[in-house]
Each structure stands twice: as structure tokens, then as C-alpha cells.
Design a protein that fits this description.
By secondary structure, the protein is of the alpha/beta class. It is 38% helix and 9% strand. It has helices at 30-58, 66-72, 85-88, 117-125, 162-171, 175-181, 191-202, 219-222, 246-260, 296-310, 318-321, 329-332, 342-356, and strands at 97-103, 130-136, 211-215, 265-269, 275-277, 283-285, 314-316. It has a five-stranded parallel sheet, with helices on both faces. It has a two-stranded antiparallel sheet with strand order 5-6.
């Protein structure tokens, strides 16, 4: 009878028991590893792309420096024709260039911390040879509200527009401004600042002023004030003495001052880019939106037109000379679409210093 146990014999020389069994070395599954690696790399790439898109969409602000202006050579409409005061006022120059500044909101924003455009500008420019009188008023406008005079009770805001401030600074009669203060809404206007400016203007003598700077932002445009009032029957007659228009306010002011002191030089600082609100309350680009009398570009053109056609007024182009536009404006402007944030104020200040410091 066959012996079946012979089938259970172990090969000679192989030890018995599982503990001594040698396992065969497993080879790496390279195709699988390669596939997983490619998949992991693709996932990481997608995550990186999404992160970059989110960062790009968030944006990054950048403040222009003097070196940037030299390097980039922005296409601006600057026209600086200031002469040193000692050359203009050879008989009356006292060794100090006195600069009187009128303006509004954007140039006073940050003043509580000493970080407004005018605060920073003064720190850079003011010296024992340059004196700056900052009379910028939040809530003020370059153009008047009315073509003819209204009482302070009926339109108190009018008496803090450029024309009335210039007129009463010369006469030193601020009775109408002081009356108007009683009718201004103290929740909207900084009454103390208004009183402070009136105090500064009390001490201003146009015979001693060398330069008048006009620093008004886009608020005139936003409320739909007229840049110019054309006469349909006589297109060449632009009603240059209508102070309720930008052209008229500038024209009358320069004429008035020149009759007092023909040596005073003028600097007009253009508005920076801002947004407007359409009929639905949505912020839209001022470069494209007509608030009733044109886009902000037409306001700027009117100022340029006045300057180039009537008087040799220096022109500082902030609109084109500062990199704030409809694409990045939300990073530089507050939610109202016009008030400059700190970096925007620094950018505008650097621009003014770059263009004007050596002239002053």
C-alpha cells in the first residue's frame, strides 16, 4: 500500500516551522506610486492657483514715491510755471514764501492724527523760508451754490465756498460767515474747524501772500455742480463771471486777487479719481458717469481750459499723476468712493511734494 506520508515531506535543508520562513522581498508598485504622485501634484497646483486668484482679487496697495515718478514718467497734464517769490516780489519779498491753501474734505481727512494730506505736505515743505496757511474746510466747495447772493440763513454753506472766503478775507468782514455758522448742521460740519479757518483768514493779508493753492476734490462733480455755463445763443460767451460754475469761480477769484496783488501766483490741484453713485446707489466710475453736467474729466478739462486760456496758473494733475483708478480705487478709497485712505493720502502728498517742493 502506497505510503501517502511521503507527500508531506519537507524539502531537504528547509527548517520547519513558520518562525523561520524567509519572506520574499516585495517590489515597489512604481506605476501606482507615479499615478498617486501626479494626482497629488495636480491637487496642490489647483490649491495654489485658487490661493493666488484670491490674493490677486484682494489686491495690494502701492504708494508711489518720487523715484517712481522719475522712472515711470506718467502721462500727466502738469503745467508748473511758478517763479521764486524773490524774483516776482523783488520790492516786497520778506524772505518767506507765504502759501495760502483753500480746499476741502480729501485734504483734511486724517487731520485728527496729524496724517492729512496738508499735514504731511506741511511737514515736507514748510520751513523758515516757507509758510503754509492751511484753510481747507471739510464740506466746502469750489463753486458757489447760487449765482446771486442769498442770506446766510437761507444758504449758510454758500459763505464757505471759494468766492465768499476770498471776498471776505480781503474785506476782513466775516459777519456773514459767523452768522452762517449758526445755521450749519453741526452733525455734518466741523464747526470748530470752520471757526479756526476764519481765525486764520483774519490774519491773512493778500499783500503778503505769494502763492494761493486750490485743493478741491471731486465733491463739486458729485453734487452735479456746473463746470461751465454755456450760452446756447452765443457759444463763445461762457458766462465767466458766474460763480456757481467752476469756470466762473476760478475766473472771478483770479481777477479779484490780481487787482489786489498782481504778484500772487496760483496753483490748481486737480481732483483725484473718485467714484460716483448712480440712480441705484451703486458706485460707478467718475470717468464714465455724468452727474448732470458731465463726467469728472469734463470738470478737470474746464479747470485746464480756464488756466490755459485766461491766466498762467500752475496746474498739478493728480487725476492722471497718481495711480488711483476705477480698477484699484476700492483699495485706496473709503466706502463713500471719494475719501482717500492713508496710503492714498500719502501717494497724493508725495505727488504734491515732488512737483512743488523745489518751487516753494
Amino acid at each position: 500500500m502506497p505510503d501517502n506520508r511521503s507527500n508531506n515531506r519537507r524539502p531537504a535543508g528547509r527548517p520547519s516551522g513558520n518562525s523561520g520562513t524567509r519572506k520574499k522581498k516585495r517590489k515597489p508598485n512604481y506605476p501606482r506610486i507615479f499615478g498617486w504622485s501626479i494626482g497629488l501634484i495636480l491637487v496642490l497646483c489647483v490649491i495654489l492657483i485658487v490661493a493666488r486668484i484670491l490674493i490677486w482679487d484682494k489686491g495690494k496697495t502701492y504708494t508711489m514715491t518720487a523715484e517712481d515718478y522719475e522712472r515711470i514718467k506718467l502721462d500727466t497734464l502738469d503745467n508748473i510755471i511758478l517763479w521764486p517769490a524773490e524774483q516776482v516780489n523783488k520790492d516786497t519779498y520778506d524772505g518767506t514764501t507765504d502759501v495760502l491753501v483753500f480746499g476741502n474734505d480729501s485734504f483734511r481727512e486724517g487731520s485728527k492724527k496729524g496724517e492729512s494730506i496738508m499735514d504731511m505736505f506741511k511737514k515736507e515743505v514748510e520751513s523758515d523760508k516757507v509758510k503754509i496757511y492751511d484753510c481747507c474746510l471739510p464740506g466746502s466747495y469750489l463753486t458757489s451754490f447760487n449765482e446771486t447772493e442769498e442770506s446766510p440763513e437761507k444758504c449758510p454753506e454758500d459763505y464757505f465756498t471759494l468766492f465768499w472766503l476770498i471776498l471776505n478775507t480781503n474785506s476782513k468782514d466775516f459777519a456773514k460767515q459767523n452768522t452762517a455758522l449758526n445755521y450749519l448742521d453741526s452733525s455734518k460740519y466741523d464747526i470748530d474747524r470752520y471757526k479756526e479757518v476764519l481765525g486764520i483768514l483774519e490774519g491773512v493779508n493778500f499783500d503778503k501772500i505769494d502763492v494761493i493753492m486750490l485743493c478741491y476734490d471731486g465733491h463739486d462733480y458729485l453734487v452735479g455742480k456746473k463746470p461751465i455755463n454755456y450760452n446756447i445763443d452765443d457759444p463763445d460767451n461762457a458766462q465767466t463771471e458766474n460763480v456757481a460754475t467752476e469756470l466762473g469761480a476760478l475766473y472771478v477769484m483770479v481777477n479779484f486777487i490780481n487787482n489786489i496783488n498782481p504778484n500772487i501766483q496760483f496753483v490748481f490741484v486737480s481732483p483725484a479719481f473718485c467714484y460716483a453713485k448712480n440712480e441705484n446707489g451703486k458706485l460707478v466710475s467718475s470717468a464714465k458717469y455724468d452727474t448732470g453736467y458731465g463726467t469728472i474729466g469734463e470738470y478737470i478739462y474746464t479747470a485746464r481750459y480756464t488756466i490755459s486760456n485766461y491766466y498762467p496758473i500752475s496746474y498739478v494733475d493728480i487725476y492722471n499723476g497718481v495711480l488711483i483708478n476705477e480698477d484699484n480705487g476700492k483699495h485706496y478709497l473709503e466706502d463713500d468712493g471719494i475719501t482717500p485712505k492713508e496710503k492714498a493720502r500719502k501717494m497724493i502728498t508725495d505727488r504734491l511734494v515732488y512737483v512743488l517742493k523745489e518751487r516753494f
